């Protein structure tokens, strides 16, 4: 990979959610794509890079996108299309394994899961469990809708690309595009609607309490905001690191 790989002093959190029916994996993945910006914004925790404030909520996501198979997932119709994708790139020497497909969402045949890979590093256990609950509930919701015959097509590529950029740039302060006419809504409003939609599923899965932690993230602010507030109050980047260490040590 050369220079792009040499920059990868970055850290993220991945969530694996088991899927019973392999034939629905791509449909579920397509439906999940529209929520990449939501999960990215809620987890955003990398405003600083090489001693300076980048102006981004998530610099990690932009650094990682420099790799050739990183970033937004390809919209593939079915498993056969995914196999064609893999066969082509393996034959061409671009890949040797599924582990070299670094999409924000990818199927993982070895584990029987859908892997959500868009999140920044989450410094607190409360944030990890909140987004784990949201991820698990989202996958189950998409699976149920696919089973019912709903077409879970992702947003248009240009809408999804713009929304991911807005989440990386502005975090939970982003205005997301919600239709093909360019209508926008504050990202927190769309997250609250999403939590309302999956709350019954989370209750059945036994992670309802953890899901409510998503609303706490909105109220208290994700890590990128907490880091900036510390610097704005007079702290330096050493103080930011110390605060992140304390956050990680808190297992409540």
Secondary structure elements and pairings:
Layout: H1 3-6, E1 12-18, H2 25-33, H3 36-43, E2 48-49, E3 52-53, H4 59-64, E4 70-71, H5 79-91, E5 102-103, E6 105-108, E7 113-120, H6 125-147, H7 157-170, E8 175-177, E9 184-186, H8 187-205, H9 208-211, H10 213-220, H11 223-232, H12 237-249
Parallel strand pairs: 4-5
Antiparallel strand pairs: 1-7, 2-3, 6-7, 8-9
Helix pairs in contact: 2-6, 3-7, 6-8, 11-12
3D structure, described in words:
The longest helix is centred in the middle third of the chain and has 23 residues, at 125-147. The mean pLDDT is 94. The protein has twelve helices and nine strands. By secondary structure, it is an alpha+beta fold. Helix 6 packs across helix 8. The radius of gyration is 18 Å and the shape is globular. The protein has one domain (11-249): 2-Layer Sandwich (Creatine Kinase, Chain A, domain 2). The strands form four sheets. A three-stranded antiparallel beta sheet has the order 1-7-6, covered by helices on one side. Strands 2-3 form a two-stranded antiparallel ribbon. Helices cover 52% and strands 13% of the residues.
Summarize the structure.
By secondary structure, the protein is α+β, with helices and mostly antiparallel strands. Helices cover 52% and strands 13% of the residues.
What's the total helix number?
Answer: 12
- N- to C-terminal distance: 40 Å
Poorly predicted residue ranges: none
**What is the H/E string?**
HEHHEEHEHEEEHHEEHHHHH
**Strand order, largest beta sheet:** 1-7-6
Percentage of helical residues? Answer: 40-55%
Class by SSE composition: alpha+beta
CATH topology-level name: Creatine Kinase, Chain A, domain 2
Shape: globular
The largest sheet is: 3 strands, antiparallel
Quickly give the CATH architecture.
2-Layer Sandwich
The chain-level mean pLDDT equals 94
Number of strands: 9
| CA gyration radius, whole angstroms | 18 Å
| CATH uppermost class | Alpha Beta
β content, as a range? 5-15%
The total domain count is 1
């Amino acid at each position: 990979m050369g220079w792009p790989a040499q920059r990868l002093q970055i850290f993220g959190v991945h969530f694996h959610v088991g899927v019973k029916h392999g034939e629905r994996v791509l449909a579920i993945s397509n439906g999940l794509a529209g929520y990449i910006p939501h999960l990215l914004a809620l987890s955003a925790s990398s405003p600083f890079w090489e001693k300076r404030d980048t102006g981004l909520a998530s610099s990690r996501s932009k650094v990682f996108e420099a790799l050739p198979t990183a970033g937004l997932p390809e919209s593939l119709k079915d498993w056969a299309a995914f196999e064609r994708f893999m066969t082509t790139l393996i034959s061409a020497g671009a890949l040797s394994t599924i582990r070299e497909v670094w999409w924000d969402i990818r199927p993982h045949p070895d584990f029987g899961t859908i892997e959500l890979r868009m999140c920044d590093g989450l410094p607190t256990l409360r944030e990890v469990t909140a987004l784990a609950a949201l991820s698990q509930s989202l996958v189950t919701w998409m699976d149920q809708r696919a089973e019912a015959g709903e077409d879970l097509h992702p947003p248009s590529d240009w809408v999804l690309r713009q929304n991911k950029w807005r989440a990386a740039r502005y975090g939970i302060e982003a205005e997301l595009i919600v239709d093909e006419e360019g209508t926008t809504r504050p990202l927190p409003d769309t997250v609250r609607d999403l939590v309302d939609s999956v709350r019954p599923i989370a209750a059945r899965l036994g992670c309802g309490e953890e899901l409510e932690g998503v609303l706490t993230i909105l109220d208290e602010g994700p890590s990128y905001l907490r880091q900036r507030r510390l610097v704005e109050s007079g702290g330096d980047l050493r103080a930011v690191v110390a605060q992140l260490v304390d956050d990680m040590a808190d297992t409540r």
